[in-house]
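Reviewer 2 asked us to include a model.

Predict the structure of this chain.
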Amino acid sequence: MELKTFKWNQDADGIVTLTWDDPDRTMNVLSSGAMKDIAAAIAKIAGDASIKGAIITSGKSNGFCAGAALDEMESNAGGSGAAKSEEERVRDRYNGVVQFNQLFRKLETCGKPIVAAINGLALGGGLEVTLACHYRVVADNPKIQLGLPESKVGLLPGGGGTQRLPRLMGAGNALPLIMQGGSLDPQKAAAQNVVHKVVPADQLIAEAKRWIKETPDPVQPWDKKGFVVPGGLPNEKGASTIFTMGNALYRKTSYNNYPAQRYILSCVYEGLSVPIDAGLRIEARYFTKLLMDPASRNMIRSLFLSMQDLGKGARRPAKVPPTQVKKLGILGAGMMGAGIGYVSALAGIDVVLLDTTQEAADKGKAYSTKLLDGQIAKGRSTEAKKTELLGRIKPTANYEDLKGCDLIIEAVFESREVKADVTKKAEAQIDAKSVFGSNTSTLPITSLAEASVRPDNFIGVHFFSPVDKMQLVEIIMGKKTGDYALAMAIDFVKQIKKTPIVVNDSRGFYTSRCFGTYVGEGQEMLAEGIVPALIDNVGRMTGMPRGPLELADDVALDLAYKVREQTKKDLGDKYEAGAADKLIETMVVKLGRYGRKNGKGFYDYPQTPDGKKRLWPGLKDIVAFKVTRSNPELVDELKKRFLYRQAVEAARCFEENVVTDPREADVGAILGWGFAPYTGGPLSIIDTVGTKKFVEECDRLAQKYGKRFLPNRLLRDMAEKGETFYGRFKPETKKAA
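Predicted model (structure tokens):
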């Protein structure tokens, strides 16, 4: 028997140790090769009388198994055979899922005791392998996580996870874990019966062998007569409430946008009511439905494959040698600069945090202290780690402290004059090879680079607030920005463990420009006379993290007004005013309502600890409300306006060469401004709807609401040719900027 992804070792006691160590991957996954090896190993174990039991463990230092090979799954998600009918493709896919599912069933019914010796993270299919083992022992390491994260990429566990986990820990504990894609550390996993024992890492294999020798039991609990599901069956008193509340919570939090979570509820409810084999078939049916759903394929592509590619530096210039930022200078110690300083120090980088006064710089460093104190209070950090991290941050008002910095990130006010001033002062101190990055969110990089004596090393590095939580960094290429600056910017973003996208220079770049259309559309709706509560509620129903009026308050209405005024000044006669312009001017200039920052915007923000924000009643005095009641048709129309307005702007950015890779357009939208994740991103929406149908609908919206919805030439050309973004602009051809 020849195994490619496992190593076979049989000792004198007849115990086989299967060490999972795929030579072609940095982390073990359930690839087609691994599945073949597992099948061969099961047959050997079951058919050889000299084998008394088996242990499955990992040879990788970074984990046991990270789950299914989603790259293989995504490429085959539609079913094989282009000439086959839809019914045949569905049947092929279902049979493939059943085959995958039944492999684990064969493992647990092979007649020999099987132990999972878990020495690293076991996620998704990795955990499902262990659940099919009769005994699970895990190393005592809090960094090890066990969970089923499939729902985060639009899937459900397809290897028995929705059936075995609830039979171990009860539906009440299992449902939140599966639906939210959470995970457990070893101690919590043992407390909830997910694993049997936690031992020191060096005792893992010894404990596995001890169990096989002393107390082997090759029959799973659910295969034994009289098995009772913890917490009871779904139709029993008490347990039924779990599903009622679970369904209500799902609809409240997701607005029914995520079929995976809905199907998980059905899998567990229906599956626990029948024997395990029938439950596994139920799971396979729902899993197949998801695989055939374009939305799930979009989520897999954007939230896993594309994000993974970009996180590894897919757009990095290949010819530039690797760079590393050892010393970072940050100009501006406000919330943004302070946040950049924190994540950089966390990555082991020495940080110079500079502001106009020592007091302001010290205040910026205090932001890191506050974050660390919060983590210590939650048991996630220690005083020693806090001292070490804070020791890397030097607050200062002296530009000479910037000497030796590999990279400078400017995070001062959105003013050309202020940015030009700090650029000149900083460049007077740094080496010729140092890179200067501006954290501007709207001002064109090319024009800001005019203040630099080295425009080839001047680049945009746009972070999102709060920096410690937001995963995206938008890297902006000016007209003179060189490959070395781009390479260093991408290497730095990877260094601080965030996801970079690369875009070309433009007003608002990509993220701010497209995000502004969501907020702007909400304001247009308000100016039309639609009641604000309906606008924000529908915004959240669309899948956005917050309503557009809420977000406008968060960003600050006075900032939006200033940006708009600067845009008017820059564009002159080319600027086209919208209905919302007068509304914002009234709010900011006449009424002094700046948003959350001064406690009054579209909402009122009570300055008390328990105070809750409320829509400002005075809106009715400056807007004549014409639409005060909702109906399904209106909700659908408003949702379409929100989504299509952002999507058509993303398409314009593509035509204008602002963004050139569909992966970056979709990932940037989801990570940058919270664009509805279940769609896969704005370009995925267009591809899924079909370019022809999308263009027709945008023409209708433009005729009814304004030419901001008009499709561009690229969209019309693609509609005529029946093209998609991921078909016409293949990501694999965009490896370097």
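The radius of gyration is 28 Å. The chain has three domains: 6-292, 327-505, 512-731. We have added this to the supplementary material.
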